[in-house]
Amino acid sequence: MSFNEWETLSFPHFFGEFNASEEDSEELAKYKDLLNKEYAFCVKIVDDILAKASKIYDKQIYTGKVQMFACDFAKLEGALADWNELKS
């Protein structure tokens, strides 16, 4: 799945930048800068992230076992279906 396909999935998400304004405190401005840097980093490695997640997903679906520290994809897909039903 490409980043563009991933970006258009139907679930609540944020894509964009936090822009500092003159009213922001110094701490908030630094936090926004950090978020922008983290977002840029994730965009650079999104294909690697998706490949690893797909591998974990496929293994979980095949075996039915959730690895330690991994998401329970069946529960997430159920929650997504519920959310999509509510927003319709």
TrEMBL record:
Short name of one Pfam family: ToxN_toxin
Molecular function in Gene Ontology: RNA binding; RNA endonuclease activity
Name of the molecule in the record: Toxin ToxN, type III toxin-antitoxin system
Natural source organism: Butyrivibrio fibrisolvens
